[in-house]
Amino acid sequence: MRKRLLLLVVLGLSLFNCSSDNDNSSGEQLSDDIIVGRWELTHHEALGITINDTPCHQQSYIVWNSDFTGERETFANNGQGGPCFSTGAGEGTWEIISDPDQNENYRFIGNDGTTVEEEVVFIDDNTMYIDYGIVDFYYQRVE
Q: Which of 41, 42, 96 is nearest to 73 (CA)?
């Protein structure tokens, strides 16, 4: 009798342990794209010359979440070591708009309707830059 009871308990527990905690039961699509994470600005380069690598500018960040939401904020000062201030912030959604075999292009759509398309070049899994033509913004993954 004890063996049967023990067997029933073990079987019951094994049924609960077989269910997956990693499934996405909400049906929401999630991304495992390399860009997912929090990225902080390290510096800007214009024509290969490093500019704007101050602690103030380095407060700028972009967050690309796996649920295709995100946020960003940029900081600057007057260039003379003056006070640091936010030059723009926003939340919204993002999507991939390019061929994955080439540099990635992403579209960020702000909750205010602003749309920004960006060419992102990954140096490695934790370093990228956004190519804005003459000026490139370099970011380091922090999460």
A: 41
